[in-house]
């Protein structure tokens, strides 16, 4: 039986249907979870979809971090269960302290919407287990605040613990060490700026995103 994927929807989320289509494309099941909900008892993995949660007021993810669902997601993560944040979802996870570092404005202060090639740095996460370290994938970015930053100590911890999940081949936004995605120390929480849910059909430019979702439903 495929896992039930909970897709979190905030006011301003705009990628929930893309994630749902990707989950269905690999044979999985999903349920939308509104940000005011708190119930995750039947959910096997959580995906925080991209968009502009609460309009990105203050800064991306800063208000969403206080939505009622986040308390349940934090407990879900503490129990070692998979939580994935994509783009704005990555920003929410850093604001909530579930992932280290922060996402700041792109170095050229320009909104980016384009394909990008990424290196797979580790497959020891619930979102990359079907991918091979050292391989390259083509995904799509769509962000203004995708520039990952952290202090030197955090960067050394990410490197030493193999917590860097994805890196850009050609860094589009100024991210520290070309980082496009990371995981927590226990490897069950993953955040990434590129959108694998938008890369599920070769006719649309790439189907490399399918392996991410195959990883998630075959835990």
Notable features of this structure?
Rossmann fold; alpha/beta; 5 helices; nine-stranded mixed β-sheet; 11 strands; two-stranded antiparallel ribbon; 219 residues
Tell me briefly what this model is.
This protein has helices at 16-25, 68-78, 88-95, 152-160, 210-217; strands at 4-9, 29-34, 45-48, 83-86, 102-104, 112-120, 136-143, 147-149, 164-168, 179-183, 189-192.
Account of the 3D structure:
The protein is α/β, with parallel strands linked by helices and 219 residues long. It has a single domain, classed as Rossmann fold (3-Layer(aba) Sandwich). The protein is built from five helices and eleven strands. The protein is globular, with a radius of gyration of 15 Å. The N and C termini lie close together (11 Å). The mean pLDDT is 96.
Strand order of the largest sheet: 2-1-3-4-11-10-9-6-7
> Helicity range of the residues?
10-25%
Largest β sheet strand count, sense and barrel closure: 9 strands, mixed
Q: What distance separates the N and C termini?
A: 11 Å
Count of alpha/pi helices: 5
Sheet/helix structural class: alpha/beta
Whole-number count of domains = 1
How many strand units? 11
Strand content: 25-35%
Multimerization status: single chain
The CATH topology assignment is Rossmann fold
Silhouette? globular
Can you identify the CATH class?
A: Alpha Beta
Mean pLDDT: 96
Topology diagram in text:
Elements: E1 4-9, H1 16-25, E2 29-34, E3 45-48, H2 68-78, E4 83-86, H3 88-95, E5 102-104, E6 112-120, E7 136-143, E8 147-149, H4 152-160, E9 164-168, E10 179-183, E11 189-192, H5 210-217
Parallel strand pairs: 1-2, 1-3, 3-4, 4-11
Antiparallel strand pairs: 5-8, 6-7, 6-9, 9-10, 10-11
């Amino acid at each position: 039986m495929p896992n039930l994927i909970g897709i979190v929807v905030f006011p301003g989320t705009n990628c929930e249907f893309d994630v749902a289509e990707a989950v269905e494309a690999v044979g999985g099941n999903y349920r939308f979870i509104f940000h005011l909900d708190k119930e995750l008892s039947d959910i096997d993995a959580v995906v925080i979809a991209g968009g502009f949660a609460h309009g990105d007021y203050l800064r991306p993810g800063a208000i969403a971090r206080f939505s009622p669902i986040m308390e349940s997601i934090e407990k879900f993560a503490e129990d070692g269960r998979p939580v994935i944040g994509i783009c704005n979802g990555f920003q929410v996870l850093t604001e909530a302290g579930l992932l280290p570092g922060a996402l700041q404005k792109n170095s050229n202060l320009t909104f980016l919407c384009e394909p990008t090639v990424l290196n797979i740095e580790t497959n020891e996460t619930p979102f990359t287990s079907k991918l091979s370290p050292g391989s390259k994938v083509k995904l799509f970015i769509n962000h203004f605040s995708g520039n990952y930053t952290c202090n030197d100590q955090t960067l050394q911890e990410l490197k030493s613990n193999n917590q860097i999940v994805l890196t850009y081949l050609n860094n589009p936004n100024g991210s520290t060490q070309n980082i496009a995605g990371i995981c927590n120390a226990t490897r069950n929480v993953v955040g990434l700026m590129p959108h694998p849910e938008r890369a599920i059909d070769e006719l649309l430019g790439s189907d490399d995103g399918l392996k991410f979702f195959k990883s998630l439903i075959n835990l």
